């Protein structure tokens, strides 16, 4: 009912005067005044790259027509009725067009794509959101506090469950010295929302970011995304020109000093594991933005902020792990309908996490330059030995900065490897993940010789003595803290402070009553494994550390768990 009501009544701002940015405002406040120029810049640069070579131009047009015809024929929807005829007509005519007509068609296609991608930023919505959204979410979590939270000058409900960690003072200083590019792990479609709030409470600037076009179907999320800097990414489109538009749009925004955010994993982690295989396209756009500015004699540094998003409870966990475990899901890039699109699941989720102190921890890691170097207090690049270096030297040839795509691609690959390593060390292990690891490792030990899918069918058939589970939790916690001392991983305050019995009780309580099935439950003095697939999802965060966390008797099971991440 609520979902239908909202879909029939799109959110709109009252008609009031446009906001005029002030010099002290964040850079994104100026975006709308530059939007048309940014789109033109993207279009002109892409067209110039293709128009100099007729063969390349014709190939680009044929590629666009072929992939769009293929996509629209499968969709068979209103978009297909409106545009399929154009693409079918164009593919028949491309070879007969003269140079002038081909260039005109190219310009039209790229312009339409760039306009569709380009975002919008309304400072009025931003000011409304920073005041109202935390209170509204707090009210959803605790309905009896809704009126109080909406009227309170400083709402606390969201602060009870969301924590921001890291050297925030350093990042606040850097924001005025160059372009910050936040590169977080990706677990849920809620990530953009909680990241925006984490930036706000940390005194960090709002950012531009890409969001899947499928998310704009939710009227509430669409309203805020459309007005708060999100640019639209239609992952159904396979056209080469479209991919160029997305990458160059991101690059131009960073060139112009807009702080940015994108998910190098590309999509949500279906398995729950820490991302290890990163998509390098948008990372490359930031590296190229730094190079392009240097060539143009613009001294604007670009810094990457490795960021991990750590949930004790994940909104879409059931759908994601099911998608990962099916062959179709491994090849599928977009989940069209999951818990995120169901507003009633939002209410259930937020109400569930209200009692979860630190239910979400955003960990902002130390920034690095485009070449993986640490960044000093004044924004200078530093070697591992602490020597200050000029990052611009990486893009120079014979003393002059030059654009070299092959060189920059190599730098991007190295940057991706550094980020993957940093994701592990900046991950904060949560109580549910730690408990799930103990229980799933026990399942593996109790079923020698079974494959993964056979184990996942054992619902309610395996149980462990509660005291034995608590004892193993205590040993595991000690090993995690030892890893933390060595800088290998981090853990939440709850993992550090609660005794094993409290950790177990907390995890079982979190799982029970939100997911359609519960991961495990307590029956008398036995812990019964109810849904091994959910246990697998939550414990997968510990896959990179499984062998280091095991003793000699657990090592064989730990090796099996570690092998789950072989293609991570």
Summing up helix and strand content along with how strands pair, one would put the structural category as: alpha/beta
Biggest β-sheet: strands ordered side by side in the sheet: 1-7-6-2-5-3-4
Q: What percent strand?
A: 5-15%
Number of helices: 23
Query: Spans with pLDDT under 50 lasting ≥5 residues?
Result: 1-10, 138-155
General shape: globular
Residue-averaged pLDDT = 86
Q: Distance between the terminal alpha carbons, to the nearest Å?
A: 40 Å
Q: What is the helix content?
A: 40-55%
Count of spatially separate domains: 4
Q: Please describe the biggest sheet, giving its number of strands, its sense, and whether it closes into a barrel.
A: 7 strands, mixed
Number of strands: 17
Radius of gyration of CA atoms, rounded to a whole number: 25 Å
Question: What would you note in describing this structure?
Answer:
By secondary structure, this protein is α/β, with parallel strands linked by helices. The protein folds into four domains: 27-117, no CATH class; 121-160, no CATH class; 163-207 and 259-423, no CATH class; 428-563, no CATH class. Helix content is 51%, strand content 11%. The chain contains 23 helices and 17 strands. It has helices at residues 2-8, 31-51, 54-75, 78-93, 99-117, 123-141, 146-151, 168-174, 191-201, 219-227, 240-255, 281-295, 317-325, 327-331, 343-353, 405-426, 431-446, 452-456, 466-485, 493-497, 500-511, 532-539, 555-563; strands spanning 162-166, 179-184, 208-212, 230-233, 260-261, 302-311, 360-364, 374-375, 381-382, 388-389, 396-397, 400-401, 428-429, 463-465, 490-491, 520-523, 526-529. The strands form five sheets. Strands 1-7-6-2-5-3-4 form a seven-stranded mixed sheet, with helices on both faces. A hairpin with a 2-residue loop joins strand 16 (520-523) and strand 17. The two termini are 40 Å apart. Residues 1-10 and 138-155 have low confidence and may be disordered.
């Amino acid at each position: 009912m609520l979902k239908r009501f909202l879909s029939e009544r799109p959110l709109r701002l009252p008609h009031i005067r446009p906001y005029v940015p002030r010099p002290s405002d964040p850079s994104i406040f100026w975006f709308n005044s530059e939007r048309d120029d940014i789109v033109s810049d993207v279009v002109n640069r892409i067209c110039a790259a293709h128009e100099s070579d007729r063969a390349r131009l014709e190939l680009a047009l044929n590629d666009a027509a072929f992939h769009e015809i293929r996509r629209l024929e499968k969709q068979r929807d209103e978009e297909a009725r409106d545009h399929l005829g154009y693409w079918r007509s164009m593919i028949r005519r491309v070879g007969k067009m003269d140079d002038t007509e081909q260039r005109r068609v190219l310009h039209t296609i790229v312009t339409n794509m760039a306009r569709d991608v380009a975002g919008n930023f309304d400072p009025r919505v931003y000011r409304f959101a920073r005041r109202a959204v935390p209170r509204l979410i707090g009210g959803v979590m605790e309905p009896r506090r809704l009126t109080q939270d909406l009227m309170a000058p400083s709402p606390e409900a969201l602060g009870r469950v969301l924590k921001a960690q890291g050297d925030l003072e350093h990042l606040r200083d850097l924001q005025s010295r160059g372009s910050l590019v936040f590169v977080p792990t990706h677990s849920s479609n809620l990530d953009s929302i909680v990241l925006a709030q984490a930036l706000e409470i940390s005194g960090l600037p709002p950012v531009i970011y890409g969001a899947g076009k499928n998310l704009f179907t939710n009227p509430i999320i669409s309203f805020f995304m459309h007005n708060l800097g999100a640019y639209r990414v239609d992952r159904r489109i396979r056209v080469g020109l479209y991919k160029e538009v997305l990458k160059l749009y991101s690059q131009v925004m960073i060139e112009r000093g807009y702080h940015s955010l994108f998910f190098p994993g590309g999509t949500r982690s279906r398995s729950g594991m820490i991302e290890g295989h990163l998509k390098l396209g948008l990372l490359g756009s930031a590296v190229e933005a730094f190079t392009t500015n240097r060539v143009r004699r613009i001294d604007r540094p670009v810094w990457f902020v490795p960021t991990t998003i750590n949930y004790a409870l994940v909104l879409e966990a059931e759908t994601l792990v099911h998608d990962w475990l099916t062959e179709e899901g491994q090849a599928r890039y977009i989940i069209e309908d999951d818990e995120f699109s169901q507003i009633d699941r939002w209410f259930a989720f937020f109400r569930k996490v209200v009692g979860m102190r630190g239910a979400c921890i955003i960990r902002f890691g130390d920034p690095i330059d485009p070449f993986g170097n640490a960044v000093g207090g004044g924004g200078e690049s530093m070697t591992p030995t602490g020597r200050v270096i000029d990052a611009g030297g990486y893009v120079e040839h014979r003393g002059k900065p030059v654009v070299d795509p092959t060189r920059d691609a190599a730098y991007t690959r190295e940057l991706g490897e550094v980020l993957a390593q940093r994701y592990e060390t900046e991950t904060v292990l949560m109580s549910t993940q730690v408990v799930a690891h103990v229980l799933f490792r026990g399942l593996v030990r109790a079923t020698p010789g079974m494959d993964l899918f056979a184990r996942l069918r054992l619902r309610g058939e395996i149980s462990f003595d509660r005291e034995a589970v608590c004892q193993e939790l205590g040993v595991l916690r000690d090993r995690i803290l030892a890893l933390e001392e060595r800088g290998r991983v981090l853990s939440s305050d709850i993992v550090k402070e609660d005794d094993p019995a409290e950790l177990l009780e907390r995890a079982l309580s979190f799982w029970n009553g939100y997911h359609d099935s519960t991961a495990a439950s307590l029956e008398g003095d036995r812990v019964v494994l109810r849904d091994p697939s959910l246990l697998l999802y939550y414990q997968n965060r510990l896959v990179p550390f499984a062998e280091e966390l095991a003793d000699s008797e657990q090592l064989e099971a730990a090796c099996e768990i570690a092998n789950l991440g072989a293609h991570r």
